[in-house]
Each structure stands twice: as structure tokens, then as C-alpha cells.
Amino acid sequence: MIIKLLVASVFIGALAGCQSTQQMLQSRQPVAMDEAVSRARFEMNCPSATGSVLSETVIEPALQCFRCNGVQRAEYTVGVAGCGQRATYMVICPLDGSGCWSAGARNEIR
Questions:
Q1: What is the Cβ-side half-sphere exposure of residue 7, based on CA atoms within 13 angstroms?
Q2: Cα–chain-centroid distance for residue 30?
Q3: Domain ranges for the chain
């Protein structure tokens, strides 16, 4: 029984490793964009605001050991413009698929 579990976990781990970092970032990008643009539209009071991804990177877990592992996170910097205003937002997306959130305050550019 233990051998079956070990083989299954190795197989699942191998499959999870098949996706490249760039593919992981691209898969979460639409959710991150929606999060930033939604927040910007509210804060700017501008329903026509649009966004673009300025940068993206994967953040490794702070805690990594044999028995405990944190979740990798994708970090996106999204620029949003509309109604004569521009702002940047940082969006964090755990790569376990649990959703995204806008982290920190916006940076206004007038």
C-alpha cells in the first residue's frame, strides 16, 4: 500500500512539473488583470478604465523544507488608465488556484 502511494505521488509530482513557469504565469494573468481593473474602476470612479500587465514574476514560498512547503505565488504589476488618471496595482495570485487579491495601495500618476 505504501509503495502504491509513493508511486502515485511521484507520478503526480512529475505531471505538475510539466508546466513551465511562463505557462503558470500566463494561466493566472487574466484573473490578476480582472482583479486590478475592478479595483481601479472603483477607486478611480471610472467604469471605462483599462489595464495592462507591466511585469510578472513567481515568488517562491518563504518556508521550504522536507515536511512543509508554502505555496508559490505569482506577482503581477498591472497599470490601469482611464478618465484622465493612471495607477499601478500589485496583484498576488497563489498558484494553487485559490484566487487573486490586490496587495498594497495604488500608486497614482497624474
A1: 4
A2: 9
A3: 21-109
Q: Read off the pTM.
A: 0.72
Residue reference for cell 522536507: 66
Residue 86: the pLDDT is: 92
What percent of the chain has a predicted confidence (pLDDT) above 90? 43
DSSP character string of the chain: -HHHHHHHHHHHHHHHTTS-HHHHHHHHHHHHHHHHHHHHHHHHT-TT-EEEEEEEEEEPPS-B-SS-B---EEEEEEEEEETTEEEEEEEEEETTSS--EEEEEEEEE-
Question: Within 13 A of 105's CA, how many CA atoms are on the CB side?
Answer: 3
